[in-house]
Amino acid sequence: MVTCCYISAQHPDLFTLTLNIATKDDYDVNSHSSATASAASMERLHWVQHRCRQLLARDSERGWYSTPNGLPAKSSQDAHSSPQRVSGKRRRVFARNGPHQQEYEAVSKGYKGNAIRTTKYSLLTFIPMNLFQQFHRAANLYFLFLALLNWVPVVEAFQKEITMIPLLVVLTVIAIKDALEDYRRYLSDKKVNNNVVQVFCGKQKAYIDKCWKDVRVGDFIRLSCNEIIPADMLLLYSSDPRGVCYIETANLDGETNLKQRQVVLDLPFQGGEITLEDFHSRIECENPNNDLSRFRGYMEHPNGVRVGLHNSNLLLRSCTIRNTETVVGIVVYAGHETKAMMNNSGPRYKRSQLEKRLNTDVLWCVLLLIIMCLTGAVGHGLWVKNLKNPIFETDTETSPALAGFYVFWTMIIVLQVLIPISLYVSIEIVKLGQIYFIHNDLALYNEQLDSRIQCRALNITEDLGQIQYLFSDKTGTLTENKMVFRRCSIYGVEYPHKENAQRLEVYEAEENEAAGRSVTLKSGCSRKSLSCRSLSCNRSSVSLHTLTAESEEEDRLSNHIQSRTSAFCSRVAREVVPDPELVRKLSWLCSPAQPLSDGSSGTPCSLELTYITDFFLALAICNSVVVSSPSQPRHVVPEARTPLKSLEEIKLMFQRFSFSPFSALSTPQIRGSFTSRLFSRGKTGSFTFSTPPNSTTDGSETGQENNLESSNLRRKLDLSSREDGGGAGQTETEDGIDDARIDPDGFGQKVEDLSKEDDCESDTDDELLYEAESPDEAALVHAAQAYRCTLRGRSPESLLVDLPGIGSLAVQLLHILPFDSNRKRMSVVVRHPLSGQLVVYTKGADSVIMDLTETSKGAEQAQEIYSHVREQTQKHLDSYAREGLRTLCIAKKVLEEEEYEVWLKRHLLAESSIENREELLMDSAERLETNLTLLGTTGILDRLQEEVPETIEALQRAGIKVWVLTGDKKETAINIAYACKLLRPDDELLTVSCGSKDACAVLLQELKLEVQHGGDRLMEPSAVESRSESSLSSPADFILVIDGCTLEWALQEELKSDFLELSCRCKAVICCRSTPLQKSQVVRLVRDQLGAMTLAVGDGANDVSMIQVADVGIGISGQEGMQAVMSSDFAISRFKHLSKLLLVHGRWCYSRLANMILYFFYKNVMYVNLLFWYQFFCGFSGGLMSNSWVLILFNLLFTSVPPIIYGVLDRDIPADTLMELPELYRAAQTSKIYVPSMFWINILDAFYQSLVCFFVPYFALAGSDVGDLSFGSPINASALLIILLHQVIESHTLTWIHVLVLAFSAASYFGFVLLFSLFCVTCSPPTNPLGVETLQMSQPLFYIICTLTTVMALLPRLLVRALHDTLNPATALRTAQMDKVDSERYCKRMRRWNQNHSRVNRLPVSADNPGLEPSTDTVVS
Prior knowledge:
Elements: H1 2-10, H2 12-31, H3 34-57, H4 76-81, E1 90-93, H5 101-108, H6 126-134, H7 138-149, H8 164-193, E2 196-201, E3 206-211, E4 220-224, E5 232-238, E6 244-248, H9 250-253, E7 259-262, E8 282-286, E9 297-300, E10 306-309, E11 314-315, E12 320-322, E13 326-333, H10 339-342, H11 353-386, H12 400-414, H13 421-439, E14 454-455, E15 469-472, E16 479-490, E17 493-495, H14 498-513, H15 553-558, H16 571-574, H17 580-587, H18 606-621, E18 626-628, H19 647-657, H20 672-678, H21 710-718, H22 734-737, H23 754-760, H24 764-767, E19 769-771, H25 775-786, E20 790-794, E21 798-803, E22 807-817, E23 825-831, E24 838-844, H26 846-852, H27 860-882, E25 886-895, H28 897-911, H29 917-928, E26 933-944, H30 948-957, E27 961-965, H31 970-979, E28 988-992, H32 997-1018, H33 1021-1026, E29 1038-1043, H34 1044-1050, H35 1056-1064, E30 1068-1072, H36 1076-1090, E31 1094-1098, H37 1104-1109, E32 1112-1116, H38 1123-1126, E33 1130-1132, H39 1137-1175, H40 1188-1198, H41 1201-1209, H42 1215-1220, H43 1223-1230, H44 1236-1260, H45 1268-1290, H46 1296-1319, H47 1332-1337, ...
Parallel strand pairs: 15-27, 15-31, 27-30, 28-29, 29-30, 31-32, 32-33
Antiparallel strand pairs: 1-8, 2-3, 2-4, 4-13, 5-11, 5-13, 6-7, 6-12, 8-9, 9-10, 14-33, 16-17, 16-26, 18-19, 20-21, 21-22, 22-23, 23-24, 24-25, 25-26
């Protein structure tokens, strides 16, 4: 009583709900038996009290709740008068033209319109906003400060306008780039906003055309086939009589398989033509968010009844209507509040390690600048203090301290070039150039998918060259994720499908044969498969530019007929060859002369046949596959053909055939007339099934006596569902059914008129197209189809299934409990079409299903049978895992009507909830999926991608540790690791599997000691000598394998250091049964604790968290949509592309950028030091020996382009050499280019060269009467030559582009100073540069000084480079050797090409010269 009072006081909604449920349960008590109903009522009441306690424990701000459908709800008045505790947590939507106009006006003010704007600026705001964003950079603020400082008269260094030039140039270049990008976004927005859609007008009572930008929340939208959805809207009407519509979400997540959406339930006009004037309902849903897979809310009708709204009722913006002629919906989210726009985050931004190091070195340059300026300030103060009787005019009134203070700021202005403002712009340009070459690399292009690599993060290309740990998913990353049914186990009996294995080998050989075709790079837009489009919809769709690049939808539609294939529906997946042993057992049902027995002597018992039938029925219906065919592009459920016998007769016979597995094991006497009809169909083609009486069911010897060709096996089963030209309602006579003739004498196999049968066969099965959400589902449906248990159609309420010998039956579909990563299983609740029983069919991971199967009950014989089935199935599961097959368990459960009613009430309550809906649904599913009956298991083959073993071997040779993080079984993961050469036969496996935290801690300590002792043992001289030189394993050669449960303990704070230490000492780590969260935790642990550069690669949504945590995330655009790609930094189509991306492009990008940054620091410090040395000879007054224009443009223009070209095109080692010698990648890591030591070495070299460049001209011109500008002329010219030739020395590649750019830089400098000296009189006051440069360049001494200075400055660097190559010749020699090998290989290839193409009208290719040279005796036409 106290509890009820508290609930009523604090949460009146919950108290009302409790009373309503109790009242309803009282009614149930009167309807059913007293004991059963009372127990159910008490259980439900306890459950509601438990939920009340949970909600009361939560924050009161989140305590809003909706009553379930079917339960009395509060009146509308009460709903509106309740406290608005959660007004910020939900959204109310009313029809724009409905009766609730006042409410609509009140709530719609805060909702955004449907116009989108992805631009950053407008014409008025461009300049202020762009400047505001650019001045977020510290370098720009620094140079703005210097420009303003130069306007102070007492510290002015040179003309005020000149100091503005560097800043203005940088700001202008970036502003132009931003303006062009923003203009492109503007054009795209304009095109999208002006798309036309039909919107209902309340005044005209009709639909009118409106632009997308004019759509508002509450509008009714009508769409046709192939139209793009303009806003997020609830589906109210569909032209499909079942109230469904199909959408394609390729613009959102890249998935081309169709998704089914359902009209909101219990609408007044449901099932008929929609009349929007009668829509008076109110919608309440959650606020806008970016979760594409979740939508929660309810629709309240005028009578107060509330209907739950789910994600299946929501049509998302940018999706496309498919296979549905007309749909109508009401807009709930518009514009930037739609889920599509909230997920449009743009390019990813990450700071690379090189950029972090760069910022540190910039701070060192700032410190160096301050030291120089302080030196100048102190020197000037001392000079002024010690100045006696000056011969020139000076300011004697200013104290030496104040004069020194002024000079400090003057020196800041003069030496400003020391801070490289142009370096940041140059880095951006270089990275764009690097990305261009990566994007257009032919080796990273997939011709089959017409896809290139995508560079989504534009600023971490150099991190690809520093990877130390690689974390990879297995399925879809290392493997194809193209699932092929390989084998199965039913009733504890294994069926190896040997002919199916031989077919896969043939298919693989054919695929390898066809792989050697030439590849040409196609257009930049990736062509997506738009399968299962309606052929009857002629309305062309508009292109969408909201989330994707511009693409021509009409071009894609024009190729539809040629490229129409269903998702995960390859030829190898469809063509499953049945197992002969399974065919033999099915043949007993077609043999009236042979009664079923208890299973002895190889004869199957009825219980085993029950398992087999349920097994294949579960494969056919326990999925979310959408069915279509070219003749029926709309995914309707075709009219069920009349069964071979009446349904009453079939039900009667099925009840005799099917019984509980724990009932008495007496064999039911099934009449021969039934067995001959159950799996036998077709009038043409007489055939017989026979079975050797002594055949066994052992999986290793199955079918040895049965040597039929696989094609004959397929023909036998095809006969069970063939019809010769009949319509949907055609029936066959009994005489036509019983054409199968059985040989009663010797079970001999006779196949007659098979060719005739082939001619009469219908192609209906082959024309079915299955749109599956995962490749596993498609593989299982195709396997069931191979045994003639064919899924023909689907609707929200029913499934159409062909059963062998029975025909098409409609299976009532009551509920689908979809797969999720927590439950790791999927279930369907159906009413069996023959027995009428309520049956739950479940498929899922073996680790889950085996725990959910019921314990043995009933008779002792039944217990033995069930224990035997579980034991044998577990053995087969382990065997499949060792072979690397993916395993799924199939189970069923028969529900009692009362049990189902109780569960249904609880499930409806969960479905209509808004808060905690996911938790309630999971709890409901777990209550149903208990005490399952294990039917069998499947083994699905997921082949390795091509060149995966070679890629992993190359990465390990490169010093990259490869970890595999997968959710598969331990045995499967180990088998795949062996197949891809991550594991070798001589490696030692360390398996960590514990049930408690303490056991995990002890085991980790023991394994650490074992690895340490093993490493010491392997480091002994004898062991070292015995090891191959080519072995690149770690000293221990240990492989750590850890399961998900143990990993949970190992990642806790107390044990993670031990786990990490053990992992680092192993060559590789395999984490099996790991969850997405555990994957990200492992990556974060290595990244943070070791400070290592990490890379994560995956292809599915379960890899997103791992990809985002890693320093570099790579998504593979495979079979599971584009979630991983959309979250990644780089996207590739095959795992093998990693080797070229990392070993070649990664190393090049890091080497180029690191050298370019060091070069920038070098040239700036070198030139600034020239100005600094001059201060010692001008009283530290901030004077210059060159005009201010040359000072500003020297680093901004004359020497800025060569390092950019160097950063884009330089190649220290050819690509082929890097691929052949992955060790070079590791060598680049160990001897890092951009480290503090290299930075200071370049700074010291810059100091030395500046000393030479300044004092050689100083001593050469000592005693002469040259002026300041004449003295500075050879210094500037020498500095330019030294900096440019320094670039040539550091370059590993010298092409005509490099030569052209170097010549242009030199020519631009000399041209500028000559023109400046010829025409400028007052350009650089107070100095006069007129005639200075022309006079200096006319004297031989100028060239002698420049030559001597350049040689002396660069000679030490040349000597050090030569000495380094002499002492460390390994890399250079190996590179030269590989170049020679590549050259010889190229010559051989050219000779072979000449021999194959030596025709009269061909141009031969010279083997010595790859250019085309006409032969002397060849006539060229």
